[in-house]
Amino acid sequence: VPANTQEKVVLEYWHGWTGAWTPVIADICDMFGKIYPDIKIKAVVVPYGEKETKFLASVAAGDPPDVLFTDPNVIPFAQMGAIIPVDTLMSKEEMDKFKEYVWPLNWQGNVYEDHIWSFYGFVDVMALYYNKGIFREVGLDPNKPPLDIKTLDEYAEKLTTYDAKGNIDRAGFIPSDLWQWGNVFGGDFQDPDNPNIITVNNPKVVEALEWIASYSKKYDVKRITAFNASLAEERTMALDPLISERFAMQLMGQWKVIDIDKYAKEGFDYGVVPLPYPSGGRKNAHMQNCSGYGLIPKGTPHPEEALKFLLYWNGYPSTPEIIRDRAKIMVAGGWMPLAETVW
């Protein structure tokens, strides 16, 4: 059958990106289709809160998507037998070439029982973003951001405002994400010598958790819950809490620079600093957060085609066309690639 009359393989691709990322995902699928004209990507948005339940149900029913981009729950899925180890779809020579092309960060975090179960789509670098205009408004020097936890706590209090009923109207700062702050406080979640040993009870991790919990006590967990509920459900573009000035300071990644450039009001003035640290913590810390965990579900009839889509996200094979596409994807999404060639 002539190539142009062959029926295309349709890959159902589940992801959770909405808002400003909707056209980015559409462009990625279109660009992939030009490189691989025999494959069509059907992108389906599945809300993050529903993704795990729906995915496991689809695998159990024998009707999973062909590709899943998800949160860091790769190992549990592997233990359940819900996904295919990606290295079994590649020869040793192919895997060795891929490992030479990408940074080790791409695959090292997805090793379980001597197999690689996922490839990351990109990496985020997290830091503290703060609104200089609001700093000036409350009498803080915009050129002296908080560099330690004590100062961060003091600034958060000064920057927080309330409405007539005593509800939080603008949050100075509200910490979350223990996995990030635990590291900043100097803790480790795994034994450095044996990553199979989980150390979430590391004293420094516990200290970070107690600090996070202190905000719920100081500002009242009910008020914080009500404040979070008052934020727009779609927290992107102009409705982003930092851009809309509902937060004065936030822990964010590099994509925020693009969001601010596109959607912030004229004259929006902001700064970026490393994550504030406590005494005994890690000074000048930032978090490299691998994101976009690309998985191939067990039961897909198209595992080889699904692998091509995961590799494409990494700019691989490293042809000029695919590297060009990868660079466009990273710029459009505000993401950072995991291969030096793409830079």
Automatic annotation (TrEMBL):
Database matches in InterPro entries: Bact_solute-bd_prot1, SBP
Stored PANTHER family: ABC TRANSPORTER SUBSTRATE-BINDING PROTEIN, ARABINOSE-BINDING PROTEIN-RELATED
Protein name: Extracellular solute-binding protein
